[in-house]
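Quick entry between incubations.
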Amino acid sequence: MIRVPAEPAGRLSDAWRHCVGTGRIELALRRDYQDSLALLQRDIGFRYIRGHGLLDDGMGVYRPYDHQGSRHIHHAFTYLDQVVDAYRELGIRPFLELGFMPAELASGDQTVFWWRGNVTPPRSHQEWADLVRATLRHLVDRHGLEEVRTWPIEVWNEPNLADFWQGADEQAYHRLYEVTAHAVKDVDAALQVGGPALSPMSDDWLDRFAEFAERRDVPVDFVSKHAYTSGPAQHVPFGAHQTLAPASDLLEQFATPRDRLKGTRLDGLPVHITEFNSSYRPDNPVHDTAFHAAYLAPVLAWGGDLVDSFSYWTFSDMFEESGVPTALFHGGFGLLTHRQVRKPTYHLYAFMARMGPELLARGDDHLVTRHPDGRITVLAWAPVDPTGETPGPDRHPVRFSLPIGAAAEAFVRRSTVDEEHGNAYTAWRHMGSPRSPRRGQLDVLHEAAEPARTHRRLPVHQGRADLDLTLARHEITLVELTPIADETPPWWDEDRLLGREPS
Amino acid sequence: MIRVPAEPAGRLSDAWRHCVGTGRIELALRRDYQDSLALLQRDIGFRYIRGHGLLDDGMGVYRPYDHQGSRHIHHAFTYLDQVVDAYRELGIRPFLELGFMPAELASGDQTVFWWRGNVTPPRSHQEWADLVRATLRHLVDRHGLEEVRTWPIEVWNEPNLADFWQGADEQAYHRLYEVTAHAVKDVDAALQVGGPALSPMSDDWLDRFAEFAERRDVPVDFVSKHAYTSGPAQHVPFGAHQTLAPASDLLEQFATPRDRLKGTRLDGLPVHITEFNSSYRPDNPVHDTAFHAAYLAPVLAWGGDLVDSFSYWTFSDMFEESGVPTALFHGGFGLLTHRQVRKPTYHLYAFMARMGPELLARGDDHLVTRHPDGRITVLAWAPVDPTGETPGPDRHPVRFSLPIGAAAEAFVRRSTVDEEHGNAYTAWRHMGSPRSPRRGQLDVLHEAAEPARTHRRLPVHQGRADLDLTLARHEITLVELTPIADETPPWWDEDRLLGREPS
Amino acid sequence: MIRVPAEPAGRLSDAWRHCVGTGRIELALRRDYQDSLALLQRDIGFRYIRGHGLLDDGMGVYRPYDHQGSRHIHHAFTYLDQVVDAYRELGIRPFLELGFMPAELASGDQTVFWWRGNVTPPRSHQEWADLVRATLRHLVDRHGLEEVRTWPIEVWNEPNLADFWQGADEQAYHRLYEVTAHAVKDVDAALQVGGPALSPMSDDWLDRFAEFAERRDVPVDFVSKHAYTSGPAQHVPFGAHQTLAPASDLLEQFATPRDRLKGTRLDGLPVHITEFNSSYRPDNPVHDTAFHAAYLAPVLAWGGDLVDSFSYWTFSDMFEESGVPTALFHGGFGLLTHRQVRKPTYHLYAFMARMGPELLARGDDHLVTRHPDGRITVLAWAPVDPTGETPGPDRHPVRFSLPIGAAAEAFVRRSTVDEEHGNAYTAWRHMGSPRSPRRGQLDVLHEAAEPARTHRRLPVHQGRADLDLTLARHEITLVELTPIADETPPWWDEDRLLGREPS
Amino acid sequence: MIRVPAEPAGRLSDAWRHCVGTGRIELALRRDYQDSLALLQRDIGFRYIRGHGLLDDGMGVYRPYDHQGSRHIHHAFTYLDQVVDAYRELGIRPFLELGFMPAELASGDQTVFWWRGNVTPPRSHQEWADLVRATLRHLVDRHGLEEVRTWPIEVWNEPNLADFWQGADEQAYHRLYEVTAHAVKDVDAALQVGGPALSPMSDDWLDRFAEFAERRDVPVDFVSKHAYTSGPAQHVPFGAHQTLAPASDLLEQFATPRDRLKGTRLDGLPVHITEFNSSYRPDNPVHDTAFHAAYLAPVLAWGGDLVDSFSYWTFSDMFEESGVPTALFHGGFGLLTHRQVRKPTYHLYAFMARMGPELLARGDDHLVTRHPDGRITVLAWAPVDPTGETPGPDRHPVRFSLPIGAAAEAFVRRSTVDEEHGNAYTAWRHMGSPRSPRRGQLDVLHEAAEPARTHRRLPVHQGRADLDLTLARHEITLVELTPIADETPPWWDEDRLLGREPS
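Done. Structure below.
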């Protein structure tokens, strides 16, 4: 029995919803993408969104041409404006990642992903700086300086990996960073620039990034890195399986920058985990499961103690790094897959979005908060085994004594997501894994994606209610308790209702 | 075990959705009404809608005035057009009930209901006939003759009750009918006119109506009456309790016109039950319950054998015959109450709307149909005790052997409504019966009104699947079985999914 | 030539959009009403809305009943909550007018309007006070105290007229006011209560109201009165014609309370004109015309100098004081008539809503403002003859020299409303005055209601552009000038475009 | 004066709206595309839509993979289903063009367009046939056989051009056609297959296509070709200028297949012009102008006499054959550009959609039709000079005597599009050609794109009304005349309206 204190331990950080990841920016032009993002913002409400490919050819920004015998550059914002306008209409702001390289500005032809992002340094750092300045000036003109000052600007993505930056050339990255950071500040000194957007296990780059920033006196407004926990991949066609490190490993990855940068020039800067997930592969079915929601629950509950944001990679399966998905469920990163079918991890975020600002209790399997109006909200989750050796416990009890206050009874509403409930993936498997479900099947999947809801009354004694929960395998559950102000009229006699059992 | 034959016994009649009732027509101007009707049409799809008050003062149709010293009549269709336009946009057509009497055309001042419908004969039958002709001509002009010929036109409401027709004066009704029917046919001979819209237990009026029609050679295109099963009312403030006759009593009331009119001039005419429900009171909480859905299920399953339509009175609690409702749930007739909160009986209709056209089996607690694409749909319901003496059984088993065809397995999706599920009324009681729930409470009620959904796979042997259902108290349940075409790829190994129990 | 200075003369008051009037509150349940209000809020954006009938029987608030042999009162907010919830979703707040009297609380049976508002004092001032307290407590519970503190609460309507308050009994009104004001403050001392909502030409009541407030030490947070300018009515069926006093007469009526209350206890309180219009009749065709927009333009331009708000009576023709309208255009007060057909006066408000905050110039036929981004906005209007003796001038020239700033050219966009343009009424007359237009006719009317738009470029010399306007009869025109940042590429040659005249 | 006869000359063909072109199918996933298409379907209502790239890599259909040591092909319809579902929701059907070649099925690496469609024959005709069969079977499964039988299936695009089909190899095309046609018929014999989708000036291919079809006994259900009238291009950065042949040249191009195929096996088959426009370039500003609408008007009026359909290439500027557009107006083919800004040619189509089925008169500058309800609709257009030598006449008079029938007056509504009205392009030029307009500028452009509307009454004498039109330069105008049924009440006196001139 967890006796939850009536006095809050503090405020619950909302670093968990500061930012979310997206497939390449061009995909934001799509309807399914925007419909999904609208749902996300209604139920969760992220503040920023970050993805690759802002300057890729598909966005059509960098446009050299010849006129009267000489070469000129046009910077065109037709699509960028459509994307950012859509974001703002949907109540979200861009977390700008500058990259990859326009083909005609690139120094080489190495590309990454099915959609061929060019990962080589610019042929001309001057033209790159012009491109950065022109883009930011345009955004400032269109959206206002006050607004754009709130948009973080990150230089490139995972330069420490040769897949993402030719040769993983650290000196070349530092040069790119320096040129870019100065170009950003040319536009306005209060714009926020940062990096180096490292992949996991490369924190030694941080040390040298700090040293470089100091040595060259380069502006850095925030520090960023990524975090994933998956082991080696076992491949199948269009997919892969991996075991995972424990979720605590993610928290440990979050924690290192603050420690490591102590005493450096970058000490105290905001730290953004600009990507995190379990597996880094967009074709691992773990992303579609209830297991995944239960696995990540403690990360959302505790992550905000360690960093300023940690951005789930990515909100939607509208994502093409390894090609066009061949089936509705395909192990994509998304909180929802195509057609706005929500996955269990979507509900984990939606449940977090219903927690109150006062942190009352937090533990290995629970988080308890209170709203200003007195409602108490409990998020509880079952333990999981990320090694794949056991299926995890099929029942997990949690008991709370909750400080409800003066009412005689509490209204209790429970929302459940587990292997059977709030789980479109299981329904889809039951249906026979239809690769491209028909309208009627999609309707069933949308219904199956809805968490199971139950409600009841709970007695309150001396200001406290006892809540007994038994979680199913991989369950995450949200319980909301509201003190009851009973308006049942004095003449009401339940027993006169036809079919009611005598009380 | 019910062995359902593979050969259909016939087609399932859809008389159950031919028509639905509504509070007075003027209420159709309201937004909550229209929002609710839109939901209804999406989930159920009624063809016609019938309510009182088409010609009442609130509709502003009959408008005498003086000009240059003499009296004239203006017929104004400002609101009538807004209402009928809205109906047609929502995919439903009016079942026109002519009444009640405009105050300035009335011969007396007797009124019915909180909203004061005048129930006296016209001062001038000529002006009444003018009013009828003008109204129908206007509708024909606006909507087209072909369209209006499909709209039944019913003369008055329950003239056999002194509350609805001054003195329950049968001769006066016959005169009104005759004048009206001829006025209708003046506009177009193919318009459909009928009556006499009798209240229950008054079938002797039918005999005399047939005799009158013959004697006076009056056009009658259909015959209408009403059916209710409630006993005497026990009053409480803003409410009443009643016991009910068994549901079979409703079916017996439906059956009498065809029998009784055999051999008369009205033999073979369409018979419309233009109102039916359990209790005739808009303040009996039985209407809000799961009991009610289970009680009416057999009526929907069998009623179409007996009549051409039976119109549930009424679709929404936006209804004011006994005044403005004082609480969200108040025992109103509605399939849904205000704010589009759906009741269990709404789901009974929505479940019926998912049944297929081929009738495979039908019994005391079930209805089994098939769709052209092979899907089998089972509606099952628990027995109820309408006397109030017992709560009814708390468990009711039903077992079927269903002809699925060649697939190896069937996908089974079950939707459940009972005392706990798909039951906003129970949730509202748990909340403390908030008379006017807040936004957050309404959200909970909307969720609680959603049927519980489960899904699984069922093996098929020799073309048949065995379906075991155990119904909870007052449960209605819809089960849809779809043969599975399995698209799971050959390389899929469930056991490699993290957290899965070894199969 | 009006030389508009570059330095603003001050801020333009937006008292003109502080509040707008509505037909009785119950009508807010209707869809046409809400659709119209949504349009209004999109184009204009009023802050408050005020109408009669908050406590009338149609709202169902005051509900006496007997239980166990004694009489009780239920206060029911089913409809009030639907209305206020809708208002808030539409971004507008209620300006609460307490009245009229519920029939069962009334001391007499005198009513006003087709919809029979009871205008007699309460049988029991205690029960009235209970009703006021219960209503406000409920609103505070639902919407929060901070919110409700911003809603003005006005006691009754035009008590100085015997039609609206039995006998125009001043003592009885003072008693009602006192009881009500104390009831309001019982709920929360910071709620805002006021009155006396006088009809025009009755400012002597103000003196005695101030004296009464002082003598009895009664709370008064604001003072309210009404203003109309119409002369005697010449009646036709369903209509009336009247001449009008000049618009300046409205401004004079606005001005009196501040003067008159100087030195009294009410000195310095906010003054709200809680109703104003030209004619006080809802069946005078003047409301539908371009004349009316031009007539009221100076009132909107200058009124904010004199009062804290002046509330146009009323936003929509969904209004039933003299019965259900018999034709689409019927001389109703509305800024728009049914089916969201906008009238010229709607556009006057929409044009005002596009004016900037900096007041540059103001005159008998114009208002010039500037936006923070440098856009200059000109509203100009033609003179009118409210006596009906002349049609007013058919051409009215206005010329401006406008301070545009550094650009070489300005983009000029003009929106015109006059007898032919932005004038659905004229189109409707051309169509043959169809009383209840069909869908296709409504489409034409919606198009005809759209202002005519033209656009061109204007040269700028030494920071100034000369704008020559010629206004047609009864025209109101909005001109927006934007400095041009030309992005035409250097290679563009207009003459190469097919069909272009050589430049 | 054109005396329009009262007896119709026949029915007006609607071949003009049978089909419309689109940028590559993948773009249909985008929101701007779908929003634009929704508008188009509301105002025009095309039946079919045809574009390139159905099988391109961006659609992700053809997906080879290795499993257990051998190669397999997966056919994936994730995006194809999203596209076709969207089309059907928007009330339009696909006109399927099979092409281009998936990279992994291609025999070479030649590509066309910025988006790199592979234009080489398949490496394996067997795998290509499998791909065609799998795609069509999937569409039949999803949408039903009856539905898919109505979708024309065209084999490849412009194989007679080496840019679109490697080497313009006719034998290779015939082989592809043959394999494809048989694959189509394998799925269902009633599916409609055709070709050869020729570019202009290549009708000799038709002769050989007919001969080939006969010789090899290959199914052909329809014949298709393209038509354009532009001359050589004069290039500027991101654009080109061209002169045009007269519009009659398009009609001549339409006419040849029926003549040429007389007596062949293909005689009498439906002929579809599956692409037509003035210029074939997506960067010629002529597409944005009023000139263009006037130029094409006679083509829409007469084209249906010559072919079964002629499909405007393309509905939207969401089109990327020569890259991402660098400015809102960029000379794209679209009837509308990005952000749903409609061009003059959009209105030409919308005007055509308002014409009635009875063809009363047709000439060089006009088309007159009647609706079943008696409305007469006149489309008139100004002459244009496609050589660029003159700007065309600045005034063009047209006069009609129109058979209105018995009414005393007609209501006349005119919608005008010319250089100044209904012309967002002109407004955009006035604004300074903003490459990526802001929200406020887009609002202005949307307004500027609206045709100018006027309305008046016209007297009718002996059943006829005289209509005098003067067209401005490049004007297209739609006039609708409706006989007036006057409902003005007898007491109405216009002169009593304030501000009216005495009549």
